[in-house]
Structures
1.
Amino acid sequence: MILKKAFTLLSVSSCLTIYYGQEKNIDTVFVFDNQMKKVKLFHSLTTLSPADIQKNSSNLSEVLRFQSPVYIKENGRGAVSSPSFRGTTAQQTAFVWNGININSQFLGQGDINNIAVFGYDQMEIKSGGGSVIYGSGAIGGSIHLNNDLSFNQGFKGIFNSEVASFGTYNNFLKAAYSNDKFSFKASGNYSISENNYEVPEKSYINRNGKFYNTTLNIGTSYKIADNQTISWQSQLYDAAQNYPIFVENGNKSKYEAQTLRSLLSWDIDKSKFSNSLKAAYTEDNFQYFGVDNAPYTSGGLNKNYIFKNDFNYFILPKLNVNVIGEFQQNQGEGLRTSGITGTVKRNVGSLASLLRYFATQNLRFEAGIKQDFVEDINAPLLYSFSGKWKATNWYSLNLNFSKNFRYPSFNDLYWTPGGNLELRPETSIQTDMNHEFKVGDFKLTLSPYYMRINDMIRWLDTGLGYYSPTNTNKVESYGLESQLSYQKHFNKGHSIRFLTGYTYARSINLETQKQLTYVPLHKISSNVDYQYKFLRVYAQGMFNGLTYTTSDESKKYAIYPYFVMNAGLSATFMKNYTLGIKVNNITDTVYETVDYYPLPKRNYSINATINF
């Protein structure tokens, strides 16, 4: 029955693409996530370019730790890592690849260090709920990994190579060609590290910490008419993480992952309407090796088939309706001694409608509603409302209110022993208000927020020798996100960019009235870039406040505040050749984001880039 409903909804959404409007030329840049431009009309996002990502080239965890408000919980450099947005859990953060939610169907979250760090054209970090558009898990926030394709750019390429401390090597190559109708882009990277750092103050050696990963990205687009394109984007990812051990003769284990993501898109863009029809296939394989250099002990295979149609129509010049239909089938298979026995699957469908009203040039509104149809799960009706008002040239106000959700993962439902088929989805009601002030080249954003999460899923001891998930916690989160930025180009080749952010996060378990674990009360991150002609300098600083690691707020076991600073210098010669050096953790700080797993002290890297 749910399969019929989902296909019906998708068909209705697709059939709305009929004969309205007049033709117009498509943009010279094709973006796979066609919702992102609309999201930016009503929400503040942090946007990172490939050059920003390159500053923290070790892994995606480092990028987010130093350049976003997200708290990253990392079990040692390059090991298992998870995010926390606005005091929420990792399962309440959505990772979105080119408009497709890629959270693991087994875990319900993304392992940050098993997501490629290179090969994207933009990385967008959005705080706050987004389930109406981006689906399950978009409660605390979402991290968007986007690719685009340009036309009429000819041939371009870049090669970057880096050598760093702890036997670390990164290599990245990207090439692109386009004319007025055809665009092609490919990139690949290979990273490997012995990762054998030491922290003497903690008597810690990162034994068995080796990791490597390889990524291949391919994208192409063809204009079949002035207002239509057929586009394809794919990513192949292969990685291995060795799990750190605390003693020399400890048991060495590791985790290997292979990922395939492929997306085909047919886009029509006319003056009054646009339509994007997408078909995607994603596959995530993993194997756990209880003993290194032996056959794998357990593993899993997840396949997702996704069909999505996004129809957008201007009823009036100021009134726009957007209908999004989606169907997907999720399949999971446990391998060997995995807790998932055999093969499990589910069908998921959804229909969302958003209405946007542009009252004036400075005032606009958006209201959205969405119903998901999740097999064997009673999904709630979701809604969202946003309004943005530019009151003066120096002050803008943005208000957001939404209901969001996360449905249980395969592990939550089917793990043996302990899986619970009676689980309800987690739901949240939240609101935030963004105040934006502009004075000259300065911009200040203040964003207080409030969130109430019900039916939070926790794995609890059954007393029978195993754990089982249950809907137990109610959580209240409130706080403030703020950002101050400054950007200026001076005469004679000088330019400077400054960005600093402060977050205050109070996330309370309403049953115990205690702060959730691994949610810092305060976090400050700052980035400064300065360029003079061929010379570039940047510096990063990150302060992390008191972070509890136990549910009773014990300061004895808490992670105490710390400050870490990075810096880099690069010089460009003959326009196309760049040499650079980076120093990470200049302050030589002893710090950790997960108890017992310190991160590296001062370390170095040198890099070379060729543009062609």
2.
Amino acid sequence: MSEHQAELEKQLWAIANELRGNMGADEFRNYILGLIFFKFLSEKVEIKANKTLEPENMKFEDIEGKAEYIEAVREDTVKSIGYFLEPKYLFKNLANRAKNKEFILEDLGLAFKYIEDSTNGEESSDDFSGLFGDVDLTSLKLGKTVEDKNKLISEVIKHLNDINFNFQDTEMDILGNAYEYLIGEFASNAGKKAGEFYTPSQASKLLAKITTYGKERVRTAYDPTCGSGSLLLKVAKYTKVANIYGQELNTTTYNLARMNMILHGVKFNNFEIKQGDTLEDPQHLDKTFDIVVANPPFSQKWGAGDNFLSDERFSSYGKLAPSSKADFAFIQHMIYQLDENGTMAVIVPHGVLFRGASEGVIRKFLLKDKNYIDAIIGLPANIFYGTSIPTCVIVVKKNRNSDDDILFIDGSNDFEKSKNQNYLRDEDVEKIVSTYAERKEIEKYSKKVSMKEIEENDYNLNIPRYVDTFEEEEEINLDDVVEKIKNIDEEMKEIDETIKNFCDELGIKAPVI
């Protein structure tokens, strides 16, 4: 990590802590992340506009109030970066007014609206629509009076204005990574709610490295429960992805995902994040994807109505996942969207590996009829926000040969223990990835298992059935134990005698027999 990166992260988190007051971390998150994003958009539009105006020997600030110039620059800017903002609404101008203790709340709201309205009818419209919906400037959480609200927001803006994001001098990843860092810090302070929007970085890294292994570039990557988009962005870090797709149910998190994409330099026409329930209202069924990754909500309830039996995603299995546990429903959905030559990795609770009834039928179909499951990877307990249960990764490929084995890896014992949860270290991730890539068998860690053996175990995929991690205890020599007890008895007799002699000298009764 560069010095600038570390300093930026430190400054941003300090601002978040200093200014949120009594507001919960998960509540203040929307404001600090929304305003950082607004600063980013503001500086980006100014850089682009200044470049457009170079031939005229003018700066963006110079065209304020000049309608003809504004329209020409707007058209060029929207075509290039997807949106536009007038000079008077620039972050730095609002910050200067805040320093002068002016009322800026109304104009800040207008700036948000201006950005969204500038994309109407444009290709970028879906990516910016409602993007600032969770930065509620009227909320009582900001203060009781309008003046109180203005004061808090002004303080945040003034502090952010003092930070140099160095857009032109550094890689986009620096701000993007700092944004990811903040999301992670908010997640660690948000308890159970964190699981709704964030997959811990090392878990994302593991899935990304497994699914991108041996691939220099891919056409598409997809996450049906994309949260803040961190998992998709991690995939894009390890291979060149032409187009990114995702769906997210929670509106706040959906907005966060779109912001995250833009902040990481993903162009508006290279990503498509949709909002809605992936199982009930899937938005990308007309597409298949080279890489499919997800960390779906564990054992979530879902509709499981009879209408799903005629849904192409589920119909061939003959059974639906139980309404009380949607784990297999997400797996079936992801497999349906996976390209014939693609790779899929999904994080699920261990129950998926061995539960019976309808889940047992689905699991058997995937193994015996389809031969899609390529690997099962056990992870340590307590590495995810909001739950301490142990989890696993299921890796799926559709293009496996009929005689291919399934690789089982037990990575549950390799982690670093931190204050509130366990943590996958880089070496733990690398060990899993290299073992998977080379399909290595390591004693008490990994094993290749034939379909015949799995069939003999009634298609139960519980990892301990195949990877024996039992450590024999050292044998105890009972003769040695008896000898030690005898020696202790002799020593006790000597001590008792010594105590008795002292007591005799003092003329008191000895406390020994």
3.
Amino acid sequence: MMIIRARSRNRGLALTGLALTGALALTGCSGQGGGGAEPDYVEDGTFVLAIATDIGSLDPHLSATSSSLAASRFAYDSLVNMTEDGEIVSGLAEDWKVDGTTVTFTLRDDVTCADGSPFTAATVKGNLDFIADPENASPLLGAFVPAGVTVEADEAARTVTLTLATAAPFVVQSLSNVGMVCDAGLADRSTLVAGTDGTGPFTLTEAVSNDHYAYAVRDDYAWGPDGATTDQPGTPAVVDLKVIPNETTVANLLLAGDVNAARIVGPDRDRLEGKDVTSSQAVVGETWFNQAEGRVTADPAVRMALTQALDLDELANVITSGRGERATQLAVAAPAACTAGDFTSALPASSAEDAQKTLEDAGWARAGEGWQKDGEPLSVAFIHDSALGPGGAAAAELVTAAWQELGVDLDVRTMPTDELSGVLFGGGAWDVVWEPLNVNTPDQLLGFLTGAGPAEGGTNFASIANDEYAALTAEAMTMTGTDSCDTWFEAEKALVSNLDLLPFAVNVLPMYANGVEFTGADTIDPTSIRLVG
């Protein structure tokens, strides 16, 4: 899954959309001793975290998958952090101020990079300038860094000043997602593909693609969320991220104590009852339709018919293994800025007969067991993310059966998140994709739902162009904070009613633990990890 979300000190993060999740029964500590007794902390130990898909590129500005975002927190820091209740706390910056379209951060004076070099205001400017340049095609532009922003640095005052092109209701919250690269990495980004160059609490020591990624602790680290350090009892000396796609294998290793933490979303959860767990809410069922010129799903009638052929209630139940519910809004990751949205009334009713009539009314004609229009068959390439687990695979089988019953010629594939991300942002051939994106403020999705596509340096990989959504979101962006929520919800209804996007399921996603305590769910706060005996 691809996950886009805020990095927070104590947050229950959402899964895939990797990003992932919100509503949320949110975070808790894992592996704590009972009865109020002080845990027996393990010193100089190794914390093993299982991840479902490979990270791919380690460059924190050029990937937005759940695995890459989780990994980046070990090696990179953000200007500010967020607590589970939405409070903004310090990070690399000790102070921040928003005045209209001007945002000013004052940096701490004690931060150093892993190589010992200083972290300066000019370094922050280099990071934000890179992301803000459309030529670099960063998926963070428009999601966490406002488009059109200009940045000035004052080295003497340790300040960084952002001038926004337009107002942004949640700009500081969004910037909490942006890991900062040090000067050497900015100068040669090729070193970031399989290495790290940050100020974070850990430094990468080994990277073996599709196997594991090892990190060593920085003993001098003292500028984590709200001043967190790495000198606390139980802080691991080594962090090992192991790539293990099979949930049954992960559950076995977790029960045996060979893995300390893992997200399990399928039936193997039943074997882990009683294990320590943190949880978070995420959109897990989200359908994207490719509306690029020449794609069959650019036809609104095709999108409508494909949707009418599905029982969304059944799909939501299956993809969440009976533990979730229907999606009602887009931004649910904790701490969600806007709550109580509901776009379900904008979706069509389930009816195979209506689906056929929709195609017929749009000029599609039966051709044998399939459909044809202007000499072209109704053929759909459907890809779903393997990180959605057994529930995702079972739900994809239901969709395949329903669409084949309708008469659609299907090419169905499953891919790991990093590979699927390459298809979406690299111009691959697809018509329908299941890839949930999870955020905690609705403006973070703008770059994926409006503007240019990857070929033009943007992140609108589905080529969505919804004038009503664009107008409503432009209005919302002029408002302050949560005053904008009702307008965001109206914009989401406009998007869903046109079936530019079809979110259909949310789930509370558990992160199970054995022999460890921490805060965070989908992305763990590295400074909170404590190994216990």
4.
Amino acid sequence: MTVAAQAQRAGPVADAGAIAANPLLAEWTGPYGGVPPWDKVTPALFPQAFQVALDERRAEYRAIADNRARPSFDNVFVPMQNAGKRFQRVMAVFGVMTSNMNNKDYQALDREWSPKFAAAGDEITFDPKLFGRIEAVWKDRQRLNAQQRRLVERTYDSYVRQGAKLNATQKAELSRFNQALASEFSTFSEKLLADESTAIVVADEAELAGVPDSVKASAAAAAKERGQTGWAIVNTRSAVDPVLTFGTNRDLREKVWRAFVSRGDNGDANDTNATIAKIVKLRADRAKLLGYPTHAHWRMQDTMAKDPKAAMDLMMRVWPAATARVKQEVADMTAIAAKEGQQITIEPWDYRFYQEKVRKARYDLDQAELKPYFKLDNIIEASYYAANRLYGLTFKEVTGKVPVFEPRVRVYEVTNRDGAYVGLFYRDDFARTGKRSGAWATTYRSQRNMAPAQTVLASNNNNFAAAAPGEPVLISLDDAETLFHEFGHGIHSLLQNVTYPGLAGTPRDFVEYPSQVNEHWLLTRDVLDKYARHYQTNEPMPQALLDKVEASQTFNQGFATVEYLGSAIVDMKLHTVADGVVDAKAFEKAALAEIGMPREIAMRHRLPQFNHLFSSDSYSAGYYSYLWSETMDADTWAAFEEAGSPWDPNVAERFARIILSTGNETDRADAYRQFRGRDPDVNALLKVRGFPTGE
């Protein structure tokens, strides 16, 4: 290819006129090192922004590949760390629009552009001149310092895993797989969002007997938002779980449960089973082309577990204890029901309802009794208090001083214990139509010390039910734990202190570790005394009530562990099918039967709605990572306990310095050993869940 042809293929570095006219292409301006222009975002701006940013990134990588100087870290890896920054900014905004503010226009953009993004990424990865320069530095890497060497090794390994060493024909086939997968991911997300936007409307309040007033108020507000009368139980977990837990109307519980577990599995236009079959087949074919036995083997190359067997071994070590506990739990619930004159077989829509009755009988604890102490605003402040006491982070609300994408989004300026600015933290807490379900953390911009240095813009996203106007938002203990969990991701981002952005991301089975360990501080006495105060009387949670909560911490762990592990095991089994030929519905049923899934429990995420697996490659063959991370999480909490206090400053300092601030600058298993002095002890996990440890 001639130089002129290469330049034409690369496209312009960036069109000055386009940048001036399109706010998505402009540098982020304003305070805090620049912030996203949320107030100017419209769907119509994206096509031009995508194309200009992609052209610029292509030209940047083309310049690296065409450089005639001898390959070096400075002329290959430094410019690679800076390439594509405009594209990253555009995609950060688009990611929020498709996750938090989705509509038909954004879905159409996602469908059209996702395959183009995949193709553009492959063009860079498959460029033989670029990879030749990467490989040349890799071969001479021993002269580099430790961080540079790790960046070179990880980049080289990633390019090889992504197909850089394939021949031209194989690369073309791989790119077809990647583009097809990108299209199917978009299709899956669109279909699932449609099903999650539906609601069961209740016209007669009597049907909601037993449901707390705050939950009914939220359901009434949801109905009003939809232009309906009565109460709308939206098909998302935060709306469904309270009805399954407290509703005395068994028929309504069954109706709500069936709608929830059937998302994506109704044989209609939003059915995802055929989409899943395509995704699994494409993944298997891609893995084979890349030289791996299965998709799981390919995905797990850059994880702590390394291969499917290690992950399955951990899961199956826990599984028998969990299913044995379920049998006990079902027996206890059946006895309670019989005592009340209900000669029933416990069904999945009964589990949460009767588990509450058992909890009340055994511990004199009613979950509804806790909710008045968990006012959302207070629990948010509690999370900030804990982060300050442990790590010296201070959160000052600056909502209104920077643009936001939705009026209820709140923004905080974060400083460290020396008063130095660290970053901004955004939080989008409430469910709404067009927002995907669940809870997640993301960053709009990551920290880096390499010039040009930048500070972090981090966010948490929840789906709490908004209260009626003038009423406080009360959340459940489970929701409060979720808030602390997601905030753990935020802390991880805010404490990051890495030089090279390429060493920021951590392995999939490590990334949940900082978030899971952060959950532990919610129920510390100090946090509860200051922030778990009754929303009407402002009285702190009584010690007697906390004692009941602590006594019941391992209660219902059979259910919690089995619903999670059922999903994680099916994920791993699905992605170790060598040829990838599956019928999703039949496979799920057979896999659950093989492991002896208790009939009274459904997977936490059935395949037709398993967004973690099928909206991207991100968690595919990786849902086990929560358990893997929990092993480190439980063992880390044990370190604080051994030190005599959950606030021990020495343990907190070492945890922040060795684990939280270092990104992926060192091997994460080595980092854990440096922090703890040994590998994590799985018995700590079993102890936390109340299962036999075998010690």
